[in-house]
Specification:
By secondary structure, the chain is α+β, with helices and mostly antiparallel strands. It is built from 3 helices and 8 strands. It has helices at 12-15, 30-37, 102-111, and strands at 25-29, 40-44, 49-57, 59-64, 67-72, 75-79, 85-89, 94-101. A hairpin with a 2-residue loop joins β4 (59-64) and β5 (67-72).
Length: 115
């Protein structure tokens, strides 16, 4: 029998930067997050949060669910709420990460019925 462990849920505002524990939006540089969590970030998810990752330069290996991508900046990738993801960034990788509460995004979509 395979021993499957649950995929950790990371709430950035509680785990990383508690000044923003109730904020709808959290921003930080990729390098700061990599310094805290490590450049080899194991599989995790963010319940009720979208993340937009902008890799300005450097290589990154991204795992989204069962798909693997090896790309170099400049690039964007989006991780929707609850989608398991992991990534490995090179030491010279530079960029930005925006974490946004799901309710804020839904509110923006609801405000524009053409979406």
């Amino acid at each position: 029998m395979i021993d499957r462990k649950p995929i950790p849920n990371i709430n950035i505002g509680q785990v990383y930067d508690q000044r923003y524990s109730d904020a709808e939006v959290h921003y930080d540089k990729l390098g700061n997050l990599a310094e805290f969590f490590g450049r080899n970030m194991p599989v995790h998810r963010h319940d009720r949060f979208f993340q937009v990752h902008y890799v300005k330069s450097g290589a990154v290996r991204v795992y989204l669910d069962d798909q693997q991508y090896l790309e170099s900046g400049p690039m964007f990738f989006l991780t929707p709420p609850t989608v398991a993801h992991a990534f490995v960034t090179e030491a010279d990788a530079d960029g930005h990460v925006l974490t946004v509460r799901q309710q804020l995004v839904w509110g923006l979509v609801d405000a524009d019925p053409t979406l």
